[in-house]
Amino acid sequence: MEYRSGKLPSQIFIENGFNLELIGKNQPKRCLQRWRDTFEKFGEVGLQSDRRGKSSTGRPSSKELSAEEKLKKAEARVKFLEAKMTS
């Protein structure tokens, strides 16, 4: 894992094509903390699930994703998987 090898969260995001001016300079650190917490609770499966950290008895989301939102989500997943393969 790149973070464990000493890279800063912002450096990892920049190297994987994220624009910190667009997402915010503190977002990488917040994301990494949230992902670590999720991993500690649920393991790798928790990072793959769209409902991670949500109650299974909760109301399902009624919001349908637009084609653009689905594409962004798919692109983020590809980047995540590519980063996982190279680490």
Descriptors for this entry?
single chain; mainly alpha; 4 helices
Task: Summarize the helices and strands and which ones pair or pack.
Layout: H1 9-15, H2 20-23, H3 27-48, H4 67-86
Helix pairs in contact: 1-3
Describe the structure.
This is Transposase. It comes from Peribacillus huizhouensis. This protein is an all-alpha fold and 87 residues long. The protein has one domain (9-50, 66-86). Helix content is 61%, strand content 0%. It has helices at residues 9-15, 20-23, 27-48, 67-86. Helix 1 (9-15) packs across helix 3 (27-48). The longest helix has 22 residues, at 27-48. The termini are close together. 2% of the residues are buried. The mean pLDDT is 79.
Strand content: under 5%
Helix content: 55-70%
Rg, Å, rounded? 14 Å
Shape summary: globular
Order of helices and strands: HHHH
Distance between the first and last residues' Cα: 5 Å
Mean pLDDT: 79
Number of domains: 1
Main sheet, how many strands, which sense, barrel?
A: none
Based on secondary structure, the structural category is mainly alpha
Number of helices: 4
Question: How many strand elements?
Answer: 0
Low-pLDDT ranges: none
Protein name: Transposase
Region (Disordered): 46-70
Organism: Peribacillus huizhouensis
Biased composition (Basic and acidic residues): 61-70
